Amino acid sequence: MKEEYLMPTYSPDDVCFIKGEGSWLYDDNNKAYLDFLSGIAVTSLGHNFKPVTDAIKDQAENLLHVSNLFKNNLSNKLAKTIGALINGIHGFDEIADESDVDYGKVFFCNSGAEANECAIKLARKIKGSQAHKIISMENSFHGRTLATLAATGQKAKQVPFEPLPPDFVQVRYDDIDAVADQIDSATAAVLVEPIQGEAGVIEPSQSYIKELSDLCSKTGVLLIVDEIQTGLGRCGSWFKFQDSQIMPDIVTSAKSLANGVPIGACWAKTQIANEFHPGDHGTTFGGQLLACRASLATLEALMSMNAPNQTKRLGEMIKDKLKDFSEIQLIRGDGLLLGIVLRDLDAKQVQLNALRHGLIVNAPRLDTIRIAPSFLISEIEIDTFLIKFRQAIDDTKQDENS
Ligand SMILES: Cc1ncc(COP(=O)(O)O)c(C=O)c1O
Questions:
Q1: Does the beta carbon of 229 lie inside 6 Å of ligand 1?
Q2: Model pTM greater than 0.85?
Q3: CATH number of the domain that 63 lies in?
């Protein structure tokens, strides 16, 4: 079917998936594709992961939705679990009822952009009308709402919608002095991705996130870490900021939080979260039973498999197996979020050729292929990826020579 009834905000490849199982997708001709992208870092447990599917079915048969005017028995439990993971506590047994840990508080919504929108509003509420500037980074990606677009450091995405909300500035990524130069008495928060996923899996230097945290503490500016792509085990830690031994004021999460069911979460330290009062922010669907139930089943599975260990191990295995590809200049990223930088090859063309060979990857930059496979991929599937990736590269070389 043609896409003529959809607003042309995407130009999708000409393939229509109708079924998924594990790391495999099947199109309407029953052709199988190895999914090494997982949505875009969404289905960390693969497709049709039984415990999540069962939880969704069971919840649908009981109760799908109640409004946030009433309590529900799942969102609070999920919020505490997220707070525990942010504190590095993983395992439902370890999540004690009473403890010294600040589990913080969560606002649930339906997407990454909404989670960041909530973070921006919260920061501005805390700092009051005098301090509303949000500093973010060049080439960052934080979403497509007007405020999150204003925070997204990509001119091409911003220009058609100018004038954007004021008081958002972007500075060079991985440049602590550039942030320091921008911080003044009007600054509410610094917003940063610990790895820039959409920009092509760009990692900052090792000390950067710690330096940012120190700078924010020293100047009384809030630190918001956007873990929407990097969090929940994908990059070899529960949240990537944890590698820097810091605790942000606000953390945003979405994408893989319910393995494909729409959900977003804005977490904040308790003292900060308590600056929101009834009426300050809201949502019809955020925190709904179905998404919370799917998310609890997702987190339970991620915790029981020790997702960070798993992604670290598999990521190293993939990097090791790619060593013999002379066409690869370097591999960026951590765990199972990797940016494969190609030598003199059009990455978009490699992406298209890979699709023809039944492999799903994507090209966020002209020279970079991003992979974000399921945490449950087998070694055999990794070897299948290598075969298909080799074919895609060889085809691209041929295309370029003909
Ligand atoms: C780091 C980051 N922040 C925010 C977003 C926006 O999330 P959503 O598309 O769910 O609004 C994305 C999506 O790619 C992202 O990668």
A1: yes
A2: yes
A3: 3.40.640.10
